[in-house]
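Fig. S4 source data, part A: sequence.
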Amino acid sequence: MPSSPIPVLSRHLDQADLPEPAVDPDRYVTLADFLDRLPDPRRRQGRRYRLGALLMLCSAAVLAGAVTLAAITRFATSLDPDLRQRLGLPRGVPRSCTLGRLLARIDGDALDTAIGTWMALQLGDDSPAPAASRPPLRAVAVDGKALRGSRTATTAAVHLVAALLHGERAVLAQRQVASKSNEITAFRPLHESLDLRDTVVTFDALHTQHDHAHFLVEEKNAHYVAVVKGNHPTLQAQLKQLPWREVPLLDRTRERGHGRDEIRRLKAASVSGLPFPYADQALQILRRRRDLRTGKVSIERVYAVTDLTMHLATAPQLAQFVRGHWEIEALHNVRDTTLAEDASKIHTGNAPRAMATFRNLAIGLAHLVGWRNQAAAVDHYRSHPDHAFDLITPNG
């Protein structure tokens, strides 16, 4: 049975206070076990490299900060023969054009499903245990992102919508859509294969749709926290008119960082007859932000509805679900800044989406083993590629 990469990588990180995630080592299998099963878009004749080996190379290279196909090839060239053998590339190094043709033609849905399933295994997220024995109320955030660098003179930017597990920076599912407005139709396919029992799905106003609420509650046995804005004017007006001054403050948190001081307050009230499927509670979230450099203060009121009753979720839990949703925005920011996604000029076929998938994997894996700064993780794995392989090809 393969061994867990968590203790190995924790030692590599050289950080005495690094926590080791409490996961079952027997759950770990190599990423190649999943990637080798993907449909191979190449012709059988002339294949020189295993499909899984090429995709594993891309995964490790992006973990080490590669942002272009040429950079992936340079990463492979810099590896010593033992590492290339371990990766499954005993016959040399593939050229960037070989990788480009492969990624342009790879089945994006299949790649995302394989990597999402593998990540779920590492997180212990596929448990078949009955609901009563599973951890209560985990949460998944849904949001979309355009890959601006993939835009050409004749084609629009690739747009992706993803489901991220709160607290883990792990993308469990991802789908490509034609544009932001098409995210709505992708909601069901995105979640269809996920086990959402005892899961709260959080989403912004775009996805606050009656069909989504019916799907989650009736078909997936899940819950939701849905932000309400102008696309539901009647519901929004009703929420604003509630006597919030009479509702007691249930949760208050304060955070200082990233150049600002932010105070968040949450009020929740059970309201009957809300014109949204299964809605039981109305939420008011007040955010007060002060820019530490300029002293400027901004105040924002956000309204939401949830099917969670007061008995199913406490006020601090509701506040955490609301705050946790923005982790997917943080993921997108890391992809843009540290991993240079928006600057990427890869735009042929499915290659932009595939590279975004590898970036999701890199961020999720780094977080899983204890890194909280992706730039530091990139520097480490660039200097220690064998540690990157410890993550995706555990020995055992």
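Fig. S4 source data, part B ends here. Residues 351-368 form the longest helix (18 residues).
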